[in-house]
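Q: Start with the shorter request: fold the first protein.
A: Done. Sequence, then structure:
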Amino acid sequence: MASPLSPIIEFRDVSFHTAGTQILSGLNLKVDLGETLVLLGRSGSGKTTTLKLVNRLLSPTRGEVRVNGVSNADTDLIRLRRSIGYVIQEVGLFPHFTVERNIGLVPRISGWPEDRVRARVPELLQLVGLAPEFGSRYPHQLSGGQRQRVGVARALAADPEILLMDEPFGALDPITRDELQREFLSLQQKLRKTVVFVTHDLREALRLGSRIALMEAGRLVTVLAPQEFLHSNDPAVAAYVRAFGDGLESAANRGTS
């Protein structure tokens, strides 16, 4: 386990290319224990690729990704992925499983006793704002926001230290998105997970992030705290801020309130 003074995730001169196309180039980045690092950038900037390198859905062409001080290439793949929660925009729930079976899947395959799994599921449903009776429903019986809540609960089921979130609220309507952002902040205050969160939405980044890593064309531009980001003189940062217009200060303040 990483010490409080060492990064829990570290990218060391990481590059990635596929089919002759360079997706990432020379990425050096550290994620501290208990922080929410937001990967921000336009489509094609390399955000999701960076995320997938953490749990080895992809492997770097060059360089090294370290998790808890150890190269993730040297870590057993199954053990690595079970130790990292993963939430995506499409949720990816198994349609023929009930909510209870979806949430309890990783603890069960990790060998948890059945009584512990049964106790864990309603606890997680409550944590993400759903009543216990949702456990017996199927994904098609849920709204988009409810499915996303179940996706978060499933990612948290085995109590992972790290949570990877790839635009998890991007497909939701503005009101539901706002509600889930508020719930995410509340959860993070309680659980203090290490979160890497991908978004192209600057307001979301300012609201949710401890730090914001701006990416552009496969390269890391800068890493700044939300208030630093808002007032940065870096041309790429300033262009992003201008594109989103007014109301950004309040988004950053809501994340710290």
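Q: Next, the second protein, separately.
A: Sequence, then structure:
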Amino acid sequence: MRTGRRPGNPDTREAILAAARELFADRGFDATSIRSIATAAGVDPALVHHYFGTKDQLFVDSMQVPIDPGDALNRVLATGVDGAGERLVRMILGVWDSAAGGAAAAIIRSAVSNELFARMMREFITHRILRRIAKDLDVPPQEGLLRANLVATQVAGLLMVRYIVKIEPLASASSDTVAALIGPTVQHYLTGELGRVSAELGNGQPRRRGQESRDRELP
């Protein structure tokens, strides 16, 4: 770990970003402080605030995402969760079909091939996306997080098939068609009935080996 203080020069911002990526990946967002990032980067904490303002903004910048998903989700959920499934899909398609899509695709490829980046991506998705979605759902917190996870599975599959692997006909379908097809599934994950099968995940308890077969034996 570097010690001492770096002056405010062009390398300082990159040093802060590098330290932030490593600490966010290793410790998670909540356990990482501006002071710890400054220490790892060898700068004064005031310089971190100078370059990035808040820890949230530093988190977004360290991921090099083309948009702040928190702001985008605020717009999607501003009118409530009714219809939010299709609005969410349309927002995602709008980003990926724009000039920002190339950068977004690079992030996905990096997460697949680089373990440090994968841990960073996992923390980023949990903190900036899943928690934000769960917060607006009128359900217990753990169920909200489960629902947000289910939304993420649908979105991740859509991005991989349409933009990374580019499987036809979905790759060439219009955004209106894709939103109309995928939106209802996302909406179901947000507000639909999940049934008894969600209980083991919704209560936050890991399933013990052999539990499933014992459950089937119960009347």
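Q: Describe the second briefly.
A: The chain has a mean pLDDT of 83. The chain has twelve helices and no strands.
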